[in-house]
Write a structure and sequence with these properties.
The protein is an alpha+beta fold. It has two domains: 153 residues, Alpha-Beta Plaits (2-Layer Sandwich); 129 residues, Alpha-Beta Plaits (2-Layer Sandwich). The chain is 31% helix and 26% strand. The chain is built from eight helices and 14 strands. Strands 1, 2, 3, 4, 5 and 6 form a six-stranded antiparallel beta sheet that branches. Helix 2 packs across helix 4. The longest helix has 15 residues.
Length: 289
């Protein structure tokens, strides 16, 4: 059985529910950490049990707990309003209604020091191809193994660029990887997939990780360019500013990613590395001319 088929079999055990929300934040410049903070506070008040299941208690991924979602900025709406994408992963999909109720409550709690309310103008579901979906069953989500390769051509052989516009934070021996290789990206993506799989499947998937790393080293890579891009965010739980160290850049795959493409397609939804709850580690796959 080929590696591509094996990857898809595992990824079909993970459900995704992605939405695009257009938000009117008035005169407040709303960042993802700011929105996440008020959303989390609202959910904590509404249902602490769901909060503990979906959110990481300290606001960061740890070895024992990874949030069941990621939030990331996206292009503004046609009429200029900011927009974000919320991606629920695995069991978090089952709590969609409660999470939306928390957003509605958060909008009234407001943003900034003056707690100015904001409005969620529109919410659209996103399909496995990344396009807006109006399907009646959209609330049930879709299977990560069905994630569509975002560029034309054979996903195994079409030249592509793995692009990280926002910082990606991959650690090796607790140190930041400043020039990620394909193996680093594959290793990080594999860890995230293993976490979201059911326990029985996670153990088996972890066993095939060496094969994924070996395969990544056989893929021909082209030019890559990386630069440090560090951010500062305020932690509501720790009551202090935290530095987020990362790198932004790209890695070219002039002959495509081979049989690893389903894993990379999945990573474009569940992200790579640390601090993914703020939209960081967002992998974009672009056509390489």
């Amino acid at each position: 059985m080929g590696l591509e088929i094996i990857l898809k079999a595992f990824l079909k055990r993970i459900t995704i529910l992605a939405t695009r929300m257009e938000i009117d934040t008035s005169e407040v410049f709303a960042t993802i950490p700011m929105l996440r903070g008020v959303w989390g506070a609202a959910l904590h008040e509404l249902d602490r049990d769901i909060y503990s299941k979906v959110f990481a208690d300290d606001g960061e991924e740890t070895n024992n707990k990874i949030p069941g979602y990621t939030l990331r900025p996206t292009t503004p709406s046609n009429d200029g309003f900011p927009a974000i994408e919320q991606i629920l992963i695995g069991d978090a999909v089952n709590h969609y209604d409660a999470l939306i109720s928390a957003w509605n409550m958060a909008s009234q709690m407001g943003l900034g020091k003056k707690r100015i309310p904001f409005t969620i103008r529109k919410t659209h579901f996103l399909g496995c191809d990344g396009r807006l979906s109006s399907a009646e069953n959209s609330k049930s989500g879709w299977i990560l193994g069905n994630a569509v390769w975002p560029i034309e051509g054979d996903p195994k052989t079409a030249p592509c660029r793995l692009l990280f516009n926002a910082p990606v934070r991959i650690l090796r021996k607790k140190l930041l990887v400043e020039s990620p290789s394909l193996s680093d990206i594959v290793s990080s993506a594999s860890r995230r997939v293993a976490y979201y799989l059911p326990p029985d499947a996670s153990a088996i998937f972890t066993d095939i990780k060496p094969a994924l790393i070996y395969t990544s080293k056989q893929v021909i890579t082209g030019d890559g360019k990386w630069e440090r891009l560090d951010l500062v965010r305020y932690s509501g739980s720790q009551k202090r500013e935290l530095d987020i160290y990362g790198v932004a850049g790209y890695l070219n795959l002039p002959h495509g990613p081979g049989e690893l493409w389903p894993l990379l397609a999945a990573a474009s939804w569940i992200h790579v590395g640390k601090a993914t709850i703020f939209g960081l580690g967002h992998l974009r796959v672009e056509k390489l001319d």
